[in-house]
Every structure is written in structure tokens, then in C-alpha cells.
Structure prediction request, 353 residues.
Amino acid sequence: MTFTESFFPHLTAQFPSTRYQGSKAKLVDWIWEQIGDLDFSTCLDAFGGTGAVAYRLKQEGKAITYNDILRFNYQFGLALIENSETYLTPEEIDWLLTHHKEISYPNFVQETFRDIYFTDDENAWIDQTITNIRQLSDPYKFAIAFFALCQACIIKRPYNLFHRKNLYIRFADVERSFGNKTTWDTPFEEWFRSFAEEANNAIFNNSQHNRAINSDILTIPDEHDLVYIDPPYLSAQGVGVDYWEFYHFLEGLTLYDEWKEHIDFKSKHHRLKRRASEWTNKQLIGSAFEKVFQKFQNSIIVVSYRNDGIPSIEELTALLQKYKRNVRVEQYGQYRYALSVNEDAQEILLIGE
Ligand SMILES: C[S@@+](CC[C@H](N)C(=O)[O-])C[C@H]1O[C@@H](n2cnc3c(N)ncnc32)[C@H](O)[C@@H]1O
Prediction:
């Protein structure tokens, strides 16, 4: 370890690359510029996703609670936010990638998802690797390995999602305007090693007690100086980003033994049975925001938003003003979502003090 690494780990540690829908990884420095002067030491990233924003706040020495309703994301929060000193060793990574005679490997993914997302060999690799990961007793080592498995699954998928049965796209002999065949065809093992290393390189101690939790936002105790809210985006047309629907395969990996009971076998792509959410429903999203603002009215409230969603910026600002005296609206003009078709979409930060 170099001098810098041992004394200033937050300067050398680096957040992993990510292909998660709606990730704010590219915006975290701008977000910090907008909120860095506010007076707070404890904070909550209530819709944590990849953990990119929580991680930036951890780098600034804040005591951060990461939360996400999805169990696979919660593992990312454990690995990168709560964890401050546990790493996966090269020997452990080799062990996770080896077939062990003494372990009996189920073939659930091979049988259930044939021809849907990955090839037969890749499905067998997933069954073997999740089974090996489940032998790890240290929760942080488990979380790092699980993170690497999920990122490997995401990067090998067309569109980086699990919303359709579309394995064939990887092998169709056509001009493509998206995706990258080399990336898709790079073996799982290589991606796993690469993401395990990225996670290891992200781990550091900021001398605070940081936590990861796995709750609906409305059940988290209100005990934070600042609450950062980055809910699923609902377009003006009423089309929401349904994380449960897009990433059900990764959520299923967290429920490996009981996955079958939760699958909707009527769907071609064997998604998990649907779950209703106020955040993807244009009739309910306004009241969902109001419940959140009311609940956290004693904290500084910071909301990431876009200027073309439901509710509108004006409606959302008025709602926040019901609970906070000073509300300001900051805009980041140039940022574009990777998959966005709306060229005019602007990233907004609402800050209520
Ligand atoms: C826009 S993403 C957050 C992205 C995150 N800021 C990042 O940089 O990666 C929204 C997240 O909210 C989570 N979520 C959806 N409904 C939720 C709820 N009711 N409570 C907590 N989290 C929820 C989703 O699982 C998703 O990861």
C-alpha cells in the first residue's frame, strides 16, 4: 500500500463502472457542488440503486445510510457503502470460479431460462457461481461477489436489461446501432474477475458508521440531517421505469432457493410476479412524493428529478414548499441519459431547507 492509499483512502478508492438505468454516477460531482455547503453530517440515500450518490457522500466524510427496496441493490450498498475494510482475496475469487466436487450444484437457471437471456453454458456458469457465492459466510465478501455476478450479468445483456426474451439478438447477423458483440461474448469469468476487482478498489473507511438497508422508503425512520431522493422516473406519457420488471433476474438470484415460487410462468421471459408500485403509476406518484416530503420534513430534502416527468417541476416544487421554507431548483443542462430519446430532458435538483 502506498502512503496515499493508507492515509487518504477516499482519494484513491474509485466507484465501479455501472450500466444501471437512471444511475447518477456521472452527476455526483455536480450534485455535491449543489449541496456541499449545507450543514449536515448524517444522510440517507433513500433510493440508492448503484450507490453512486451514497458513495460520493461517504467520500465527503458523511455518515450515510444507503437504502433500496430491491434485494440485489441492497447487496451493492453492503459491499460499497457499509463495508469499510473487507475485500475478496485473489484466492477467494479463484475458489468462487472453480467447480468443487464436494458441492452439489442445482441447475435451476439452466432449466428455467433456457434460450431467454444467456446461452446454456453461461446459464450453467451462473448456477455454479451463485452456488459457490452462497457458501461464503462473511456478509461483505458475499456482497462483493454478488455485486460482481450481477454486473457481469448486466454487461452481457442487450440493452443491459432483462425485460425481454432476446438472447437471439446477440447472435443475429445484422448491422447493430447499439450494444457491442465483443462485450456480450466476453466470458462471464472474465467479467466477474474484472468487477470483483472494481469493487475491491472501491472499498474504503471514512471513519463513520455507514449502513445499508433494504426497505420501502416509507418505512425508514426519520433520523437524518439530509435525505436524498432519486425515485424511478415517470415520463410525461405516464411510462415509468419499473426496476422490478427490468432487473427481476438479479432479484431472483437473491432468492435462489425459492425463485421458482415467485416466477410468472405465463410471461415469455419468466419474470417475477408483478408487484404494484406507486412510483410507476401516474395517478399515485404525486401522493407518494407528498408522503415522502411529509415524512422527512424535519430533514433537508434533496430530490433528483427531470424536467419532463410526472409530476411537473412546478407541481413538485409547490409540493415541497408545503413542507420546506426555502426551496431552490438547480439545473444541469448538458447531461443526457444513455437510453433517453428525449433530447431536451434536463437533470434537476430540488433542494428544500
Ligand atoms: C433512479 S434509481 C436510483 C439511482 C441511484 N441514485 C444511482 O445513482 O444508482 C431508483 C431506485 O429506487 C428503487 N426503489 C423503487 N421503489 C422504491 C421504494 N418504494 N423504496 C425504496 N427504493 C425504491 C429502485 O429499486 C431503484 O434502484
Notes: Residues 20, 22-25, 47, 49-50, 52-53, 67-70, 73, 216-217, 230-232, 243, 277, 279 surround S-adenosylmethionine (CB under 6 Å). The first strand starts at residue 42 and ends at 45.
